[in-house]
């Protein structure tokens, strides 16, 4: 594996993605199944802290995943994960009938539901949509006997979490094994040594940073630099963009941006054209107008920096209405499939012994 940094600068290679998350290994859906959680028995601060710590292993820095944990008595008995691998949003349920089937199952088994999702930015503050989804789930998971089956909602971030306590109907923070107010959380990021694209001087700093990266054997005649940025404005990935593709293969650029953003946990991309090339800038500008994929394009020109007009910039790589496949994993279904395969293997072994 190549060094991530050279003299403090990201070691970016042509035609590849640089990201501080390249060594990240996602956790298995079964890693918490069977583990202790006493939230269903008593929603004390200690139980919120312990459960939050248990499921914090699913703090994926790349993209959001919605998770349903089924809790019975004092342990997690099942785990459903749903993701479309988009860094700044996720689907809460894949089908309209899923929640009803889950609600009936909870009532039948006398189990309870804990909802969780992660914020790849590392900041676990609930968004307006998070709050609305929580209210919806809190109202939905009341069974036919008027018993509340929804325990609450945990949002996992870096070294801390936030949670909605379904019993007390409020949002709080968790950090250092303590409950706190949300505004008391102190978030640690793994990319704080990289420039932030927010602020008055951000574009100038980004242009200077691109120069330092290009000094590492980047062919600036034929390549530009793409900075992948998360919702908090931090750079989480850097790649080169082949300039010729803006004329010859724009679909390849779209596919590269989509794929790289998922690997880097980025919701937007900023592009820097290292050398003054007005024809390239105009071609990229046309691409941005048509696809709405790039947040801004910067290009040095004499003593100033040319950039996209505001109406041609896009704050997000992915947009509502785009067709993005969902990935759904259900520990119950997976366990059933495993048992079937084991039984089939056992039967095949038995048939083999008879044949002998």
From TrEMBL:
Highest taxon of the lineage: Bacteria
Domain RadC-like JAB positions: 73-164
Pfam families associated with the record: RadC
UniProt-listed InterPro entries: RadC_JAB, UPF0758_CS
Annotated coiled-coil segments of the chain: none
PROSITE patterns recorded: UPF0758
Protein name from the UniProt record: RadC-like JAB domain-containing protein
